[in-house]
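User: Before I run my own analysis I want an independent prediction to cross-check against. Here's the chain; please return only the structure tokens and, at the end, one sentence I can use as a sanity check.
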Amino acid sequence: MATIFDCSDSGALLTGMRLARGAIGRGELVVMPTDTVYGVAADAFDPVAVQRLLDAKGRTRQSPPPVLIPGIPTLDALTEEVPPEIRRLVEIFWPGALTVILPARSSLQWDLGDTGGTVLLAVIAAVAFATILAVVAGLTLSGASAVSHDIYATVIKKGQADSKAELKISRLTTLGLGVVAIMLGIVFEKQNIAFMVSLAFAIAASANFPVLLMSVLWKGCTTRGAVIGGFLGLISSVALTVVSPAVWEATLGNPAGSALFPYASPTLFSMTLAFVGIWLFSVLDSSKRGAQDRAGFVAQQVRSETGIGASGASGH
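Assistant: Structure tokens:
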């Protein structure tokens, strides 16, 4: 007997999504809502699961199923070539009611039926919504925790805030984040925000990764270099994304070919800038704090790898 989860209940939706991913990984079928009707899903790279899907829908191999993908980067990975006209269409209408048929990459190890070497690809709005919803709870909690504990209790109150005050600030922050999210949703209701997915990866790779890697592995890294390099990666990744074709042309409506940055992702450039910034400003840092950072690297390395000298847990 199949288990049914109510997608209107956020708790049931998240549980259902986790179990659905596990079921698909085992070669089973999953029924899920789309932006139009209910659909039957299976792992496209599992021939047995694909045949089960065809049997369940009463189809033959002459009616191969479409492949649902999370976004444009996957489109490039699954197809031999994406014509410029198709790329402009998917940048405008995905996720949404647009399905494209393109030559499948010959190296793919799958069997969808008698496809004639092509693949039917789509990004449905419901999948994007469910994915966004799955991370909203975590983002809200992390944002509220950062404001209540890190900013209010640690910075403003200098560690003297009580738990009741922190809880109150956390609740107010959650309410504020919800209001801001709703307002942004209304403002960008008609916009395709698929570029936000690549932007999140670009920021993580350009601002977080270089700072973490350099601070853990390079003894010359200082606080000044890490802060400046991290901000260089953050600002450059956001700025280059805004002037890229996905935002400058597809989202903001500027003429085709007018984007100042010609590439879809800025990570190669913004991450490099972050690494160079961390190295340069750390080398140029002759402050007293910089000397302390360099002197404390060995103790930090021992503590991070063995736990020796680590302080006890703090209350949150």
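Sanity check: Residues 10-123 form a domain with the DHBP synthase fold (CATH 3.90.870.10).
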